[in-house]
Amino acid sequence: MPDIPPNLTWERAAPPDATGPGPWIEIAFGEGDDGDAPVYIRETSDPDNVVTTNRRKWDAFVLGVQAGEFDHFVEGV
To answer: Which domain holds residue 58?
Structure first.
């Protein structure tokens, strides 16, 4: 597992009115503004298990979510 900087600011992906511990997904952006800058992802119920990617891949994922490319995963939910 890569070294995780201790000073990250984690942003919780939860509705503004959400209460309780979740579990929720949290995202933190590492240093840098280019496409190779690190992005860290974890779940509140297991904060020591951190997945990393880079900004270029994160941005592509977010655009895909916004475009509905993953809607088939939640059909009927």
So the answer is: 11-74
For residue 26, the SS3 value is strand
Q: What is the pLDDT of residue 1?
A: 54
What lies within 8 Å, CB to CB, of 42 at 6+ separation is 10, 25, 26, 48, 49, 50, 51
Rounded (10°) CA dihedral 50, 54, 58, 61 = -100
pTM for the model stands at 0.85
Specify if 51 maps to a domain. yes
> Domain tally for the chain?
1
Mean pLDDT score across all residues of the chain: 91
Which structure tokens are listed for 2? 């890569």
> H or E stretch including 51?
strand 46-54
Q: Is residue 6 part of a domain?
A: no
